[in-house]
């Protein structure tokens, strides 16, 4: 049995059917690039050994992992010893925040951050939730006010680029307030890596990153922290991998894919101006049929569109578009399948608006024809209301 036959037998749709779909859900995950798949295939054949083994095969895997660690550490300007590979952004966020003495955050953070805040709150730790204006921008003054009376070492958690709205947070200004108060700043950079210059958000005390948002593999990310900051205590009990901080065998195949994705970040970044023009074309063409949830003067990434569609529930619209071959989402994929409406749009506006809001996100392979076709499908579906 070939690999294609095996996969086709156990998946919902044929490869040919999926090729006909217009994929506009890149913030959920991005399709692995051919270079990434090639690197993983080669590593799967030749660099598959346990990197903790001291023999030649193990050393080969170890060298690959450390080379990619060095590359990522160099990119985000941290010492390699202060960067640990994780299973992705969710684990990295949980690990960074699970033992902080106090936490300040907002409801527009990723679920891996907000759920951790709720967990700390239930355990009796001081947690403060910041108000979110309609702009979706966390104001530094709000952070400064929230820090009053919080314990020493309190952590402020902020997402550099919001996963649903694409809004870019003023990370540098927030960092200045946080550090002046003696607190620490955790930045979720999962949606920022490769899309926003590193120097814009590189003022963190700890940072979380994931590979699959930049056309790398799922199942691998990283947590890094500044030299001098208290090293977060391990989440798991186990062996001595990753200097005893993150037990479990590091997969050199996933790391190889991560490394290939890092190598081609310039190509990914160069596609963003073109995507911004396509996103604007989509929003303009839909005109009065939809309303952007983001104000015209709010800084956001050019590949993200958060749309309010009156008289439609988000779930119904996503399903209707899917039937016509256009794939979008109603918010974070991490909340899909739950009854919860978008907490981001709820925090910015209210639950009623969130119930009728969808997210459209473009990516490197999105073409002019994709957007023209998507516009036609949107218009056709929305004419039914």
Total number of domains:
2
Question: Which radius of gyration do the C-alpha atoms yield?
Answer: 21 Å
Shape: globular
CATH topology of the largest domain: Aspartate Aminotransferase, domain 2
Largest sheet: 7 strands, mixed
The count of strands amounts to: 12
Strand order of the largest sheet: 2-8-7-6-5-3-4
Task: Jot down its keywords.
single chain, 385 residues, alpha/beta, Aspartate Aminotransferase, domain 1, Aspartate Aminotransferase, domain 2, 2 domains, seven-stranded mixed sheet, three-stranded antiparallel sheet, 16 helices, 12 strands
Can you walk me through this structure?
The chain has 385 residues and is an alpha/beta fold. The protein is 41% helix and 12% strand. The chain is built from 16 helices and twelve strands. The protein has a seven-stranded mixed beta sheet with strand order 2-8-7-6-5-3-4, sandwiched between helices. It has a three-stranded antiparallel beta sheet with strand order 9-10-12. The longest helix has 21 residues. The mean pLDDT is 93.
Question: Short description, anyone?
Answer:
This protein is α/β, with parallel strands linked by helices. The protein is built from 16 helices and twelve strands. The chain is globular.
Topology:
Blueprint: H1 3-10, H2 15-19, E1 22-23, H3 34-46, H4 56-76, E2 83-86, H5 89-97, E3 103-106, H6 111-122, E4 127-130, H7 140-146, E5 155-159, H8 171-180, E6 184-188, H9 198-201, E7 206-210, E8 221-225, H10 252-263, H11 265-270, H12 272-286, E9 291-292, E10 304-308, H13 314-323, E11 326-327, H14 343-348, H15 351-355, E12 357-361, H16 368-382
Parallel strand pairs: 1-11, 3-4, 3-5, 5-6, 6-7
Antiparallel strand pairs: 2-8, 7-8, 9-10, 10-12
Helix pairs in contact: 3-10, 4-10, 5-6, 7-8, 12-16
